[in-house]
UniProtKB/TrEMBL annotation:
<feature type="domain" description="Helix-turn-helix">
    <location>
        <begin position="42"/>
        <end position="85"/>
    </location>
</feature>
<dbReference type="Pfam" id="PF12728">
    <property type="entry name" value="HTH_17"/>
</dbReference>
<dbReference type="GO" id="GO:0003677">
    <property type="term" value="F:DNA binding"/>
</dbReference>
<protein>
    <submittedName>
        <fullName>DNA-binding protein</fullName>
    </submittedName>
</protein>
<dbReference type="InterPro" id="IPR009061">
    <property type="entry name" value="DNA-bd_dom_put_sf"/>
</dbReference>
<dbReference type="InterPro" id="IPR041657">
    <property type="entry name" value="HTH_17"/>
</dbReference>
<keyword id="KW-0238">DNA-binding</keyword>
Amino acid sequence: MKNLKFEDLPNAVELILEKLNMLQSEINSLNENFQPKELIELMSREETANFFQISYPTLNNWTKNGILTGYRVGNRIYYKRSEIESQVQKII
């Protein structure tokens, strides 16, 4: 960083303000084009088993056989609600 003299302060402030305005306009354009991602709703093993009215061993078998896809978050397994609903549509 270069040392500024008192006489150079007005020019430095003007340069900072120009860059600030440029950043603000860039942020505004990004906000206009921003499209949030669709939230993924996850269901626990308990919720999924209750939804299908099946036992945990049956849910484990369905997961192993590829009927449902389980997603591990930490030590827990969750299922996407959208995938569960699509499986229901396949059954019906």
